[in-house]
Amino acid sequence: MRAAAVLPPGQPPLREALRLSWPATLSLLLHSGYRVNDQYWVQFLGPDAQAALGITAFMLILNFAFIQLVHAGTLSRVAHHTGAGHRDGVEAALRVALKAGLLWVSLVAAAGWATTPFWVRLLGAEARVADWSAVYLQRIYLCLPLIALKPIADGIFIGLGNTVVPMVLSGLTVGLNFVLNPLLIYGVGGWDGLGIAGAAWATGISRGLGGLFGLLLLRRLYGLRPRLGRPTPWSEIRRVFAIGAPTSCSTAAYALAFILVLKTSVEPFGREVQAGLGAAFNGVEALAYCGLLGPAIAVSGMVGRRLGAGDPAGARAAVRACVALSVGISLVFTLIFLLLPERLAAVFSADPGVRAQAALYLVVAAWSQSSTAVNSVLDQALIGAGRTALAALVSACGYALRIPAAWLLAHRAGLGPAGVWWSLNLSNYLKLACIVPLYRWKITQATAA
Question: What residues contact 389, with CB distance under 8 A and at least 6 apart?
Answer without folding.
Answer: 246
